Each structure stands twice: as C-alpha cells, then as structure tokens.
Amino acid sequence: MNYRTRERLSSGLAYGYVAICCSIMLLPFGVIFFRSITAGRTTELTLDNYANIVGHFWPRVGVSASIAVATLIIDVLVAIPAAFSLTRYSFRFRRAIYLVLTAVWYIPGISYALALILSLYFVYKPLLNFWGFVAAYSTGFFPIMLLSCMVAFRQLDPAYEEAASCLGAGRLRTFGRITLPLIGPGVSAGVLLTFVLSLNEFITALLLGQPTAILTAPVKVFDDISHAGMHGWVAAEAASLQIISFVACLIYLRLVGTRYLKGVVLI
Question: Are the C-beta atoms of 126 and 221 separated by less than 8 Å?
Fold first, then answer.
C-alpha cells in the first residue's frame, strides 16, 4: 500500500468517524423535530404544532431569553477584567481568589440551587423576582466565561500590546483596539456557552420557579411533558428551544464573531 492510498484511507476513516459521531449527537434532535411536525399518530407533515404553542409557550421563551441576555452581560463585564487580572498580574491570594470564583463547579447543581433558595428567602428577599434568576445564573455560569477568557489571555502574545504602547496608544485604547479583538475566539466561546446554557437551564429554574413565581421555557416544557406526555405540540416546544439556541449561535458568529473578534487565539 503506497503513501497516497494510506492517506486516502486515513482521511476516509477520519471523515467516517466524524460523520458517525455527528449522527449519534444529532439523532435525538432529529427525532424531536420529526415528532414536532407530525399530526397525532400519523406521519402527515404539518406546522400546526408550532402554531398551537404561540400563545402559551413563546412568552416563556421571552422570559428565558431576557434572563439569559442579562446573565451574559453581567458575566462578560465581570469575567474579562477578572481574567485579565488573574493572568497578567501576580498578587497574594491569587489562587484562592480563583478557587472562590470557580467554586460553583465543585458543588452539585442541586445543592447549589437549594443554597440559593435559602439565601433568597432569608438574606436576599428583594431578589425573589427576575433578578434572583439573573443572580443565580450569573454566579452559576460565571466560571465558563472566566475560564474561556483566561485561556485566551494566556495564549495572547504580549508583544502586540507592547507594540501598541510603543506607538503611543493608551491602556484603554490598546485593550479595545488590540487585546479584545485578539482574544475574540475565547470571548466568543464563553459568550455562546453562557447564553445557550442560561437559556436552557432547568434545575435552578425549577427550584427558583415557585418562590419567584417565574416560569421559564425549559420548566414549561418539563411541566407539559409531565402532564400531557410527548404530544406533537410538546415536541414543538422542545424543538423550538433547540432551534433558538442554534440560530442565536449562527447570528452571533455571523454578526459579531467573524466581523469584530477576528483573533489569533484558538481554544
């Protein structure tokens, strides 16, 4: 077997492996989507299931999207300066601060959610509303945004910032025109993960729903499945969340990620 044949064989095996993995991961979405466009027990294709959920489900999607956007804004504004400080400066208790900022990852989700409920009841009662969700999500998903930015800062060559400084640019201008675009892939990874996970968060939303009287889209899907079963309109609700997450990622990468954040950092 010559070299070219081995290359073609290895490439074919690699593509086949990727195709199999993608098929396995996309199969659940395909099943839900197919169920959402069929009527009853028949295989007749229809969009009536999506029309039937407009009045009672899309308002819940709006609530979830609002919480996700607010969470994303807070995490971005806090994580980028924190990541910059933790990677560029050496100071006392830096590791301890890092452990505190990422401590949520070391706690089971159910324990974290219960702790938040007790805190909201006995300490932060004014946050028993929309902002209680935002506070819970912001602290819960902050490590994702922080670690994505830290990896980007660590892989960024400081020579670019030094060159900008030598040419007369100030710190803020250097950060806005040089540093931020170059760490773009890291910021983009954190933005997409934070938004998608916040939009589809279930455990925390389920436990916070009763004290705050707020029903998010994932909890709405769970309630409908529990009471009605996997009907076509319930599948349409689940498929809508998946489609929204996918479309949001495409829009972000198209309008922001590939236009303003063309960095050289790869994660």
Answer: no
